[in-house]
Known about the structure:
Layout: H1 2-39, E1 43-45, H2 53-62, E2 68-74, E3 78-83, E4 88-92, E5 118-120, H3 127-136, E6 141-147, E7 154-160, E8 163-169, E9 175-179, E10 189-191, H4 199-208, E11 213-220, E12 226-232, E13 235-241, E14 247-251
Antiparallel strand pairs: 1-2, 2-3, 3-4, 5-6, 6-7, 7-8, 8-9, 10-11, 11-12, 12-13, 13-14
Amino acid sequence: MKNLLLLMTAVLGLSFLTTSCNKEASVSEDMELIQQIVESDNRSTIELSELPATVKTNVDETYFETYIENAVAARGLGYEIELGNGETIYFSERGEGLVSRRGFRHGHGPCGRGHRGTPVALADLPTSITDYIAANYPDAETKRAKTNDNNGNYFVLIKTDDGRVVLKFDADGNFIEEVSCIHHGCGGITQVDIADLPTTITDYITANYPDADILKAGQKTNSGNYGVVLNVDGNRVIVVFDEDGNFLFERS
């Protein structure tokens, strides 16, 4: 019996060691591929429609509080995705997220770690959160939720008659704020008062989105680009301008 227990312990230890080694090897391989994507001479900006469906689905489901600002393909290697909140994430050519074997994978930004978070089943949300939503957004449909891996805060995506809204709660389920898709708490985005937007931007919005309401605005610290969130007939539209106020592109 003693020998059997020793054998089982040895097998379990070997299994744990093998798993740990495999995980470390996978992370190392992912990091190497990311470095190759970053340093590739065969990089080009692509349209979002050219991204694999798995990439777009992963971002929509995991980074629902922001949006894809820019996508770069490194031919034969993978993709570099810049998000509206200042983070950059990477995928293999097959559309697999890179680095962590846990959940969504990799991101880096002003906070160091990504804001991938951990998905939370709607049925598992604290009652304080569901009660708050029911009381303050009675006609809303709750779409998805996650927790932030750094501090345990909850992010909940709801759909209202005025469009999609992301709500932020602390780890105990207490409401903190509505979060804009251009919001970043670590310095990647500087919030801009709507009244302080360059007139070239407000004039463009007035001319091209005459019935839109401007909800939020921010400026990225690394590029100087402005992101402006609009409510257009109940749908979220993000319009991005360069630091001189020239229109660049639109995102949903």
